[in-house]
Each structure stands twice: as structure tokens, then as C-alpha cells.
User: Fold this.
Amino acid sequence: MTTLRSMLMVVGLAVSACAQDDAKLRTYDNNDLELAVGNAAKMTCTCRFVMQMDDAYCRDWVRASPNVARFEVDTTNKVVTASAFISWTARAKFVDDKRGCAIE
Amino acid sequence: MKRLVIVLTSLVAVSASAQMCRARASWPTTAWPEALVNRDAKAAELKALEDYAFTLEGQPEERKGLRTNSLVVVKNGAIVYEKYARGWDASKRHLSWSVAKSVSSTLVGIGVQQGLIDVNDSVCKHLPDYASDPVVCAITVKHFLEFGSGLQWQEEYEDRTYQVSSVISMLFGVGRRDQVRHVLTHRKLHEPGAMFAYSTGDAHVVSTIAKKALTAKHGPDAFWTQLFDKLGMTAPVFEEDVSGNPLGGSFMYATPRDFAKVGFLMLNDGCWADERLLPVGWVQKATAVSDTFRAARGDCSGTKAPADTFQLPCEDTPNGYMWWLNRPPAAGAEKPWKDAPDDTYAALGHWGQRIIVIPSEDLVIVRTGDDRQGSIPVNEVVKYVLPVVRP
Assistant:
């Protein structure tokens, strides 16, 4: 019993230490969906129009967790629009051969 | 009078020799010369290298193990080994991730050589639109070059909750439209120069300082006219956010052969052909353990301060001006890359991007990859390449 109590105390202290550690961290006003669509738009744009890899390669290249973003590639205007569910979208556009893509 | 002339002549000669660049039979500005290793004579060494670097594990969708996209080796100024895989070839530009930081540092060196930047300048001198707060103005260019801004920064990637990642928020989230403002509005956590904290944000600021200084004199394409074009890089891309800040912590793209030219510039002490692009002593300074790193790590000899006085473990790989160094933490201690020569230094990027420079071997190694489970160790790359290129 004493052993169990000691173990629980150690676990408790460890959890508490982690919580304190995380409490020191700054958090940002992003949600995962916003980041997912931003990542998908930007990384797909550069994969296709800067690195000039094909569609299949780029779909694997940008795959991230959570893998919820869907994207459309406008090869004429070199624009990638990514979306997740209804509310979240991001757009990245190829600027030129020196400056690559920028996320808007 | 005669003695004075002799003294002055000697001083001029000493000065000139300090400025002189290493003589090379040729420079790869137009194209890299090739002197490929003999595949028969080096069959065993090449097999060992390629088995290590190019053998894939599992199914592609599992993203297991090392996933090398290219490996280019330059010895004595010529390409001696080159191999591409997974759909890549010599014409394709590859994402650098944090290799860009070392390029950004080099661009500041160009500005210093041209008298446009002093590393002791306040950031506020170069970025007045962003920084006027006295706390921020106390941070110098050198502090940023040494990852020593002291600004709070959480360099977290895919393995932690995205909401605590300063870098993911900057690149894809709330900070994406003006990434330098995102960096400079973080609170001060340490005195500048007191704590080494690896930060893509610091590198973004470094590249933006370089851009402001160089474009004021040379126009918007200054990175190209003042560095990339001079090296003959074919099509490097240096991305910007929508506010025009270059994203020098992450988003540069070039072919492996072009990345090798960055390493070759460093290998040649900042000279290219007959032109000195980087100041005398810049490469030495950029590849020596930085003042910030020393301050944060302290003396690892075990004879001075207790370990808890300092916040960096002695085992950490030291850094100069955004170049990683194979320097032991103390005399007699093990160096970070034990099979590599002491003078090895490297630009290192996420997913295994590497530019490795070994002056004592007259060697530059470029490796691009897509390692999603850890990154290829520098030590192993060097360990397998050296037997291939040594006589």
C-alpha cells in the first residue's frame, strides 16, 4: 500500500511538473484546422510550382496531422486553395521564379 | 624616410595577403566540373554508402526511415559523386527548411563586407518600421545571428500541440502575413546574448535585416545580384511573406548542386573567383562557437561552475552564426560528430536537409531528403562518404 501511494505521488508530481512546464509556454490563437489549411495551401503551392513535383508526390509531401484539408490546384494561375469543412480556407499563390509562393 | 617606406610597404603587403583569396584552378560559376569516383575501385565503399543512404523501408505511405532525395559530393572543387532518387533530379529545386538559416547568415556577411551592416548594429537601425521598443532595440544583429535575441520562442514542430509552436503559428497561422512582426512582438525572456534558443524567428529577422540593407543599395533582387548570381546558382528561390519579409529561417529552395555552391563559398573563406564576397575573418567567426552559445552553456570542463548554473547541456551541438559545428564541449571531450574531422561544420534542415563542409578534406556534401522519422545523422553521412572520396 505504501509502495502504491509512493508511486501515485511520483506520478502526481510528474504530471504536476509537466503542467507547470506547459503553463510557462505561450499559446497562440490558432486552431488545428486553420493551421492544416495554411500548411496544405503553402506546401502544395511550393511543391507544385517551385519544386515542380507531380500531383501524387505533392499529395504525400503535404500530408499532415490532422489530415483534413482538401485542396484545389489552379495550374493556370498557379494558385492553391485549401479548405477544411466549410469554415476554414487558405490560399497560396505563386509569386515569381525568385520569390516562390506566399500564403495569403 | 626609407625605413618608413619599407614599413608602409610591409603593412600594405600584410593587409593584401589577409584579403587574398585561395587560388583555385577553376571555379564552378558556370557549372561544376566533374571527376567522378571510379565505381570499380570504390565498389565496396559506394555500396556501403548507397545501402545506408538510399535503402527505403516499408511502404512509401508509412514514411519510415531515411528517404534520401539527393546526395552530391564535391571534392577538390569537382563533383565526385552524385545520385538522385524518389523522382528527383539535378534540375529540381528542393526545400531547404533550416539550411536557409545558414544562407541568411551568409547574406548578412555580404552586407558586412559592403559596409551596409555592422553586426553590433541594433535591430532598430535596420528595421525601424518594426522595432522602436527599447527592449527590442537592445538586441543587435549579432544576437540574432547567434540565436541569442532573448525573445520568447517555442521552436516546436509536428510532435507537440500546434498551439504552443511559435514557428508553426508564424509560418501558417496567426503570424503568417507579417512574420517579422510576429517575432519581434514576443516578450523578452533573457538578456540579449545570454541564452541560446534555436529560433526560426531569429533567422527570419536576420534575412530581413540583410534584405533591407542590401536592397537599399542594389534594388529588390539584391539577394540574387549580390550572392546567388555571383555563385552561378541556376534558379534559387527565397520566399517572402505577403508583407515582403524574406523567410530566411525556412523557405529557401535550390538544386543540390546550387546548395553545394553555398558550402563551397564557405570552404573558400568567403571568396568566389577573384572576388571576396564575405569579410576577412567572417567564415572563421561564423564557424566558431558563438559568444551566446558559450554564455548559455558555460565551461564544460567540470572545473568551474556547477551544471545547473547554465541552461544548455554540454552535449548540445554548438553553433556559430547559424552554422552547426563539430567542436567538443571541452578539451578531451567527445565531439558531436565523432567520425567527422574537427573542422566539420554544417547547415542543417528539418527532414534531413544537409550542407556539410569539411575544409581539411576540401569537401562539401549536400544531402536532401524527406525523413519524417528523425533526420539523417551528420556523423553517418560523413562516415560513409569519407571512404568513398579518400584515396
Notes: Chain A touches chain B at residues 22, 25-32, 34-35, 38-39, 42, 46, 50-54, 57, 60-61, 64-65, 90, 95, 97-104 (CB under 8 Å).
